[in-house]
């Protein structure tokens, strides 16, 4: 899985408009406890967790939010070691998947995506051990918390089946 670049075809985009997981709000972070490990996807989410004192095992970000420059998280981590990959919008590149695989289970890993990180949610879910919390941003609404388990991985696999391999 993830050996080749994958693209989300136009006709399958509607399937990705429904969020995975449950809504999570900033106010919950005062009592939030990481039980196993934490992965954040997106600049605002990653910044929010860092500001509340959490160090995710992996933060995936692209330096932008809602198509606008978002530099606060990028500035916060600019001097930290990171992996950088190119991942165009609507794709999951093999390079991004490899970087996620290499970073899952570590501590304080950063993955800077040149392009878009939205679909990184799927490899993050599928590569994380059960019990991992994967938190991503639902633009204009809230954060979404995904507790990784067999049922969530099955749902992620169903979405993966909608992607096309690129030769």
Molecular structure report:
With 167 residues, the chain is α/β, with parallel strands linked by helices. It has one domain (21-28, 35-161). Helices cover 25% and strands 27% of the residues. The chain contains five helices and twelve strands. The longest helix has 11 residues, at 150-160. The protein is globular.
Rg, please?
15 Å
**Beta fraction of the residues?**
25-35%
Mean pLDDT: 92
**Largest beta sheet: what is the strand line-up?**
2-11-10-3-4-9-7
Global morphology:
globular
Helical residues, percent: 25-40%
Low-confidence stretches: none
* Biggest β-sheet strands, sense, barrel: 7 strands, mixed
Summarize the structure.
This protein is α/β, with parallel strands linked by helices and 167 residues long.
Salient structural properties:
seven-stranded mixed sheet, 167 residues, alpha/beta
């Amino acid at each position: 899985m993830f050996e080749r670049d994958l693209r989300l075809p136009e006709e399958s985009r509607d399937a990705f408009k429904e969020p995975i997981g449950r809504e999570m709000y900033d106010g919950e972070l005062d009592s939030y406890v990481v039980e196993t490990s934490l992965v954040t996807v997106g600049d605002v989410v990653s910044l929010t967790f860092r500001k509340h004192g959490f160090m995710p095992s992996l933060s995936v970000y692209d330096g932008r939010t809602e198509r606008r420059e978002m530099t606060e998280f990028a500035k916060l981590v600019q001097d930290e070691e990171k992996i950088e990959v190119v991942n165009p919008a609507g794709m999951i590149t093999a390079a991004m998947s490899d970087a996620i695989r290499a970073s899952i289970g570590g501590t304080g890993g950063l993955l800077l995506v040149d392009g878009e990180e939205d679909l990184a949610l799927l490899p993050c879910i599928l590569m994380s051990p059960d019990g991992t919390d994967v938190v991503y941003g639902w633009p204009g609404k809230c954060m979404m918390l995904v507790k990784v388990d067999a049922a969530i991985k099955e749902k992620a696999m169903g979405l993966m089946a909608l992607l096309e391999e690129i030769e």
